[in-house]
Amino acid sequence: MLAAEVAASTRANVLHWAVGILNDPAGRVPANLSPEVLGIAREAFRRGIEQTVYSTYHAGQNVVWAYWMRTAFALSSDPAVLRQALAAGSESVAGFVEDMVAVLSEQLRRERAELARSSHARRFEVVSLLLDSAPITTARASAQLGYDLRRRHTAAVLWTDPRRPDQAALGQAADALGPATGARQVLTVIASSSSVWAWLAAADTGAGAIAAATTAHPAVRVAVGPAGTGADGFRRSHFDAIATQRLMSRRPDLRVARFADVQLVTLALQDEQRAREFVARTLGKLTDAESELRDTLCVYIGEQFSAARAARALYTHRNTVLNRLQRAERLLPFPLAGHGLEVGVALEIAQWLGTQPGGATHDG
Questions:
Q1: What distance in Å separates the CA atoms of residue 183 and residue 196, rounded to the nearest whole number?
Q2: Residue 301 in 3-state DSSP?
């Protein structure tokens, strides 16, 4: 998430500067304090690395200047034109970076006391110690967090598009998780400008309850870990939620997912190339067939090979399901009978790969 937020901030700054110099080549481009730019700067401050922000602005200046020079020499060989273009570009990007560093420094100076006093900042520090298995006692951490670590916990990660960070929506969605799941306690921590970590104690974290809790905030996505007890369960559930979040980056259409539903795919995609080869070998020509055939076969296997139940699940006629199954099986490299497990796993992995297996063949 931090990498995505840095990329969003960089893109916003480059576009802002490019539009500014295009509109007024001789003028000074004003500083850009858009939400994604301020968000990552505040996050760097919370983590005690605000000086890194300033050094990266100067590194970015060098990259933009190198690109500007290459572009100028590609467009003209006239020395007079080049002198003017290089002088304008150099002065403009240097002035923009200088103003950005000054404005961000002043903005963070004004917010310094508030950010330092933030309860989220203190909670983040304690949670980081717990996640790193630092020598902090459960009793002490529980007291500092105001959250009983002896309970049974379910971790969740909530996030929005880093290009449009919305802490208000994240906070409201996180607050709604407690009542919707019947949690005894809820712990939330701001992880970055576009993400929040949450732990729910003794909660009902079915996908339906999570989706219902966040339905008012469609831009918020949620990854949920499995339940675990004590400090170890607190950690394991969080890391599994993070693994689920990483997997969900492949499926922008998916708003809520639980580790329990994707753990097989998470394991399979630890070696993506091998996973792609497995899908290609197992599905054969079905890999490239219309998605309707794969979806029907996946539901059919999930419904314990019952065409009637698959038809009800797909809201279609049983004969339609049977017709699709016959077409799908003709494309498989071997009969479905006796290979249902492998085919089902391959279909599940294929849903998450997003693209067709590159470089793999359909040979057995």
A1: 17
A2: helix
Q: Is the Cβ–Cβ distance between 183 and 113 less than 8 Å?
A: no
Cβ proximity of 346 and 279 under 8 Å = yes
Strand partners, 157: 197, 223
210: closest CA among 249, 258, 261?
Answer: 258
Which residues, including other chains, have CB under 8 Å from residue 218's CB and lie 6 or more apart? Answer: 255
d(CA 101, CA 61): 12
Note if the pTM is more than 0.85: no
Contacts of 305 (CB under 8 A, 6+ apart): 340
Q: Are 190 and 173 in contact (CB under 8 A)?
A: no
15-26 pLDDT, tens per residue? 999 999 999 988
- Tokens 């989220």 sit on residue: 120
CA distance 63 to 68: 9
Q: What is the pLDDT of residues 131-153, one digit of tens each?
A: 998 888 999 999 989 999 998 99
pLDDT (tens digit per residue) in 238-263: 999 999 999 998 888 889 999 988 88
Nearest to 64 by CA among 110, 127, 3, 20: 20
Q: Per-residue pLDDT for 181 more than 90?
A: no
Write out pLDDT tens, residues 106-133: 887 777 766 656 677 788 889 999 999 8
- HSE at residue 61, side-chain half, CA atoms within 13 A, is 19
Those residues whose C-beta lies under 8 Å from the C-beta of residue 199, and which sit 6 or more positions away, are: 147, 153, 154, 155, 156, 186, 187, 234, 237, 238
What angle, rounded to 10 degrees, do the helices at 50-75 and 2-23 form?
A: 50
Contact 205, 258 (CB under 8 A): yes
**Residue 9: C-alpha distances to residues 6, 158, 162 (Å):** 5, 20, 9
Instruction: In whole angstroms, give the CA distance from residue 15 to residue 30.
Output: 12
- Which amino acid appears at position 79 of this protein? P
The beta strand positions in 195-311, using DSSP E, are: 195-201, 221-229, 256-258
Burial class (CB in 10 A: 0-12, 13-18, 19+), 83: exposed
Helices assigned H by DSSP within 118-166: 119-131, 138-145
